[in-house]
């Protein structure tokens, strides 16, 4: 099969499409013929040498796929050959075939093509787990979502609106502001030109919000804590701007604030299956009804993975960058 390989670390020159052996299903895994996959920030960091693949996982990049079941291990039950499935994988997604744990495999929603299903997998699991399981977001509450034009951010906006929550968002360009407004965000701030702390406190009459979804970390952590209301919660979803900073702990103590972290790929498979099941129970019917759909920035053939990574590196994408795979190759 063909697969994307990073030969060393660095820029676009290390990205290669090579012939490698098909993966052999383990006892509880499906082998899926991949029809579409999607990029994540970790893929770019892996190319740059800044992300180390967890031990025992595939060095082939890509953590979400959609395709058809081709084979399975001896302990797999309930699947049929040719069945359309999608899900989060432990690497190996940027390839023509990939292993998918049976506990992570989901049926592709009615009316979704393979590209839409691939764009749904990781962003929906992460958004549900951080907004609701960790953040406890409820109807009538407000949430501040940073990097809101990302695939996870656009999914968070839709999920929050679906449950009747108010969404405040930050982005870095005016086109991204317009895209978030079109999704129904209640307020969108250009962090390059506006002070989001001032704006959030103004809109909440100084009370702040009960929940912040933070993809930035680093330099923004103290500012994020300052917009949290009493007993508010900040969930660290990403660390785009540094892994350490100084924090006013007195603020945390006085307001009884919570700071929580989230990572899916580093968790054991047992916990990943639980995350997947929570998403399945809450959102699969919503997806089937077409009430939640992924935002896709662009679709590229697998051969153009270098261009897709460059688009992500330039931070131009609004929503997901999807790679389609030639389904007719044997």
UniProtKB/TrEMBL annotation:
Signal peptide: none
Coiled coil: none
Keyword line: NADP, Oxidoreductase
GO molecular function: NADPH binding; oxidoreductase activity, acting on NAD(P)H
Domain of life: Bacteria
Record-annotated Enoyl reductase (ER) domain positions: 10-323
CDD domains the record matches: p53_inducible_oxidoreductase
Pfam families according to UniProt: ADH_N, ADH_zinc_N
Record has Membrane as a keyword: no
NCBIfam families named in the record: quinone_pig3
UniProt-listed PANTHER family: QUINONE OXIDOREDUCTASE PIG3, QUINONE OXIDOREDUCTASE PIG3-RELATED
Protein name (database record): NAD(P)H-quinone oxidoreductase
